[in-house]
Design a protein that fits this description.
2 domains; single chain; nine-stranded antiparallel sheet; 28% helix; Isopropylmalate Dehydrogenase; 20 strands; alpha+beta; seven-stranded mixed sheet
Amino acid sequence: MSRANGKQFLWILFFIALALTAIVASATTLEPMSFARLTRQATAIARLRCVSVQSTWAGGEIWTDTRFALLQQEKPDAYGTDQVDFKARGATREVSAQGEDEASGATITLRQLGGRVGGLHAQVDDVPQFHPGEEVYLFLWRRAAEPYRVLGWTQGTFRVTRDARTGAARVTQDSAMAAAFHGEVREYQSRGVRNLSLAAFEEKLRTARRMSHVFMIEAPRYPRTLFVTDAALNIYPTLEEKADIVQNAICLAHTLGLERPKVAILSAVETVSPKIKSTLDAAVLCKMADRGQITGGILDGPLAFDNAVSEEAANAKNIVSPVAGRADILLVPDLDSGNMLAKQFEYLAGAQIAGIVLGARVPIVLTSRADKAPARLVSCAIARLLARDNAGSELLGAGLHNGWSS
């Protein structure tokens, strides 16, 4: 081989190496997310139909705005409906869970990097692309007052296709069609939802989040309703399970009229100590909320019980916190502490109490066997409100926060 041919061969090897590096970089762009994690971290989950796609040049980059008609809302947005356009075709603010609201004209818009403007084309790996008329389930994420984005990009995109002959609908996750690196097995694998029937997908969607229990407590000497969780279902919850428990409680508080509930993550002390696991969990949960992994509430912890419910106690310990002394939700370290706390409220403080299980396909009433008829009646009323909320009906629960005796 001549010297010139040798150089040419080396250049060819160099470009092949670059190409292989690009392939690997593309494959490892996103961290794999499980279905349960997608469900937990999504700000909202909706079934949508693409209406229009328009790319524009802005700030030296190409952006694509995709407008969707809102067909069905599986998980209401924790931040409200400020990103939903109800103006088109005289839309109403009632969004049905049965797919009946397309005629109302409610739409949302996604803005994503990439697209085509004239002869210029920009594409970002793993950013999903949509076409008018296409039906999808999207796991949406945003911060307060920000526009929507797709959580996990292709991982949060589930396309609905219909059999031309039978009309049967099936669902496939975009990321299931490509391999991703999974660290636990140290290899590339294709995982995810593939060719699942629509009914099976909806069942999977509605049961993906962990079930948890919440006691709602009206204590005579506390000026607001307290939500204590989890005091009846999860015995020793892990950090990941606590994130689900908190999110479930926040969604319940939204249904009952609290826009931004304050969550106190309880421990024996208000400082982080490596020797007390509950303080470490509290610190991580607060950071998860900062990063948008838990949405719709204001979290702080660790906080001792007195700091969570008494501003006087918080001030005496020089604790500066938007939650201390004003907590709406109390996340307890485990079932033992939560169960004892709830029953102390009821039997020593004369509190009215109700109990409900969240995270299942339908709300489940669960009170203590010793509870009397009023506790069971209020629990049934709250379950009914949750069922109506899941169906997209108008919320009527804010009045519960003015006391249950009326």
